[in-house]
Design a protein that fits this description.
By secondary structure, the protein is α+β, with helices and mostly antiparallel strands. The chain has six helices and eleven strands. The longest helix has 22 residues, at 39-60.
Length: 219
């Protein structure tokens, strides 16, 4: 499987009425792992992995089961041998996939999701960022907090870390748009925006020039 020449981002929407995938759409391991999940979680897991395999199979002109995907429930997806780097975000029926030759993290949220912006920023954001946000009007502050959250989740996935370990260590400068890991001094490339009803973010080398692929089909 060749590494992509540029960052690729796929955005799609799963059909909640879609039946479970057929055996040729997901691996035997994925099917076996799914049996331990609650029914709704099982459907979400199986359908998202089938869609991920279909996207990559189309890119690499191969069968879905030939994609060297290792993606147990609750773990970040990866390609065996790190032939390229993946990141997946699933919010409601929305699905965002990032593929890159370098480590990448992506995050997706519904733009209209309930968000206690003030409580969220006071609990999790560094003081300097909170001071910036407090100068904004309420509506602008809500959007800025959501953008910050999206970028930080994507950055933590880029690091292959966890929210519990790192969330409070990331700061977004809302003037310059620069994201910074305060303890380590990392300043990765990051981009965020809105597509339809979704807010999205991607972090990693080359995300500014990412190529988008929007999927609107069924199945």
């Amino acid at each position: 499987m060749r590494k992509p020449a540029r960052v690729l981002l796929w955005l799609g929407q799963l059909d909640p009425a879609q039946p479970l995938p057929q055996p040729e759409e997901i691996s035997a391991d994925e099917w076996s792992w799914s049996r331990n999940l609650a029914p709704a979680r099982r459907r979400s897991y199986c359908c998202s992995r089938a869609r991920l395999r279909a996207w990559l199979a189309d890119l690499w002109t191969c069968a879905p089961l030939a994609v060297p995907l290792h993606s147990p429930p609750g773990e970040p997806p990866r390609l065996r041998g790190d032939q390229a780097f993946l990141s997946l975000s699933h919010s409601g029926d929305g699905l965002l996939l990032g593929l890159s030759a370098e480590p990448i993290g992506v995050d997706l949220e519904a733009s209209a999701r309930p968000l206690g912006a003030d409580a969220l920023m006071r609990r999790f954001f560094p003081p300097a960022e909170v001071r910036q946000l407090q100068r904004l009007e309420v509506a602008s502050r809500r959007q800025a907090v959501l953008t910050s959250w999206l970028l930080k989740e994507a950055a933590i996935k880029w690091r292959r870390s966890s929210l519990a370990a790192e969330l409070g260590e990331w700061q977004l400068d809302h003037g310059t748009g620069q994201l910074r890991q305060l303890r380590l001094g990392l300043e990765p490339e990051g981009r965020s925006g809105r597509l339809g009803t979704w807010g999205w973010a991607a972090v990693g080398a080359g995300v500014a020039g990412a190529q988008w692929k929007l999927w609107t089909g069924a199945g």
